[in-house]
Recover the amino acids of this structure.
């Protein structure tokens, strides 16, 4: 157990010969810290956060069902798919977990080892046995596109990588669509994918919130408490303490500004903007980190509408849309007075948060992994009860548990 000092400043140190992941529990959040030789949050000048499934935790069962229904209803009502897709039993959710890859060429959903070996595979919802996997992928069970996937985590016309909860229910829906296609004798698996992408865009495009289109945003707007978990008072106090300690706080999310505001007001309060010096919405990660300013300039916002012209630079703190790491880096140098500010970024996506922030931005990164609760790590509910039961002044401001 590592106690945290009275200033709320995380002080995580782990000596090692190379970068390693370390699992910790902070205020009920299960974290994986991707460390260099020594990592200490107290040494960081800037603390950045993703929003969805990082600062904001969702009620996953309700949200997953909403997302699945949003996609399925679009396919049925707009694309003529079988209404059976709208029927879903609770046991079906065991089929889904982050890290799955949909291979468009054969309709397989696969789970890969770190070296590209196919550990599990399903065609539609039918799980393939070891003999079938070897028959399809060879004795070494190697997936042919692994080198492309591991190099950049970019989108591909040959596969889709499911690494976040906003599209993960689509993996189950896609598998069920493949089932229907195989039953009807249609072997052209790729044909349905353009319809799936249309379903995603219909529900998540930047105008959907304002225009109340699709099923996802209208449902969350109507009853945010059904889907969003408010931050605990301990988390809010920690954020305030970081700011009071002189840290620059960033919020960088790919969500559009109107949805970001709804979420933040629900989980942090209507004064949430006082916590963050810089808020960046519609960041379009991972491109935010990898693309140059000319490709992805920052834009100002007026009533949640983006300006048509990009900014030539980022000169002052505030709320912006889109943007790029290079211009943000220059602003942070000015704000911190450091030629190379020390930045740590918390996020839940390997593809959109951890990999690009570390690779392109040279930031320290912390991966939020809710899945670890299912692996026996202490749950957030248990931690929250402990935090409420024991006054803050009688303990470290929060505890960090190495597991």
């Amino acid at each position: 157990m590592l106690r945290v000092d009275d200033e709320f400043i995380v002080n995580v140190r782990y000596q090692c010969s190379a970068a390693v992941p370390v699992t910790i529990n902070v205020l009920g959040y299960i974290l994986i810290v991707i460390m260099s030789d020594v990592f200490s949050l107290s040494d960081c000048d800037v603390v950045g956060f993703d929003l969805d499934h990082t600062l904001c935790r969702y009620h996953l069962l309700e949200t997953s069902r909403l997302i699945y229904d949003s996609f399925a209803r679009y396919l049925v009502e707009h694309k003529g798919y079988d209404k059976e897709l709208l029927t879903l039993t609770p046991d079906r959710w065991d089929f889904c977990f982050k890290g799955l890859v949909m291979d468009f060429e054969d309709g397989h959903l696969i789970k890969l080892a770190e070296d590209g070996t196919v550990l599990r595979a399903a065609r539609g919802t039918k799980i393939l046995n070891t003999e079938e996997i070897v028959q399809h992928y060879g004795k070494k069970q190697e997936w042919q596109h692994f080198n492309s996937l591991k190099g950049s985590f970019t989108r591909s016309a040959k596969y889709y990588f499911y690494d976040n909860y906003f599209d993960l229910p689509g993996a189950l829906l896609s598998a069920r669509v493949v089932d229907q296609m195989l039953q009807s004798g249609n072997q052209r698996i790729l044909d349905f994918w353009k319809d799936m992408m249309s379903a995603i865009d219909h529900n998540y495009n930047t105008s959907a919130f304002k225009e109340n289109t699709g099923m996802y945003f209208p449902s969350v707007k109507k009853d945010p408490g059904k889907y969003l978990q408010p931050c605990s008072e301990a988390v809010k106090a920690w954020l305030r303490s970081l700011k009071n300690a002189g840290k620059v706080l960033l919020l960088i999310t790919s969500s559009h500004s109107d949805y970001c505001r709804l979420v933040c007001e629900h989980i942090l309060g209507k004064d949430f903007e006082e916590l963050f010096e810089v808020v960046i919405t519609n960041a379009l990660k991972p491109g935010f980190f990898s693309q140059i300013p000319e490709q992805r300039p920052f834009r100002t916002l007026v009533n949640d509408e983006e300006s048509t012209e990009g900014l030539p630079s980022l000169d002052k703190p505030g709320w912006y849309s889109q943007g790029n790491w290079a211009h943000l880096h220059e602003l942070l140098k000015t704000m911190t007075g450091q030629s190379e500010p020390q930045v740590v970024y918390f996020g839940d996506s390997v593809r959109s948060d951890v990999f690009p922030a570390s690779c392109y931005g040279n930031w320290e990164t912390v991966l939020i992994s809710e899945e670890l609760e299912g692996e026996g790590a202490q749950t957030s509910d248990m931690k929250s009860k402990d935090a409420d039961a024991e006054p803050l002044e009688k303990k470290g401001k929060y505890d960090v548990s190495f597991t």
About this structure: The longest helix spans residues 60-79. The two ends are 9 Å apart (CA to CA). The CA atoms of residues 148 and 154 lie 8 Å apart. The first strand starts at residue 2 and ends at 3.
